[in-house]
Fold Peptidase C1A papain C-terminal domain-containing protein.
Amino acid sequence: MDYAFEFIINNGGIDTEKDYPYKGTDGRCDVNRKNAKVVTIDIYEDVPANDEKSLQKAVANQPVSVAIEAAGTTFQLYSSVIRAHLAAGFICGPFG
């Protein structure tokens, strides 16, 4: 996710899907298209892995994006049972 955050910072923001729709094809960026820059960020911070207290603090103060390791068979063969160790990765926040 760090690369995405760096792109948003260096680009001065990002447009909406409506303003710049994804086409799923190789090509060049349309430099003449409207640049609304509706979302910007100034900084980001990585929360240490497996540090629940740091994650709780982050979620209480700003939106948090979470990456999960989905390469293992436990995740790939998931069908219907909620697994506590996987469900913990879906916190978004801030709560209020």
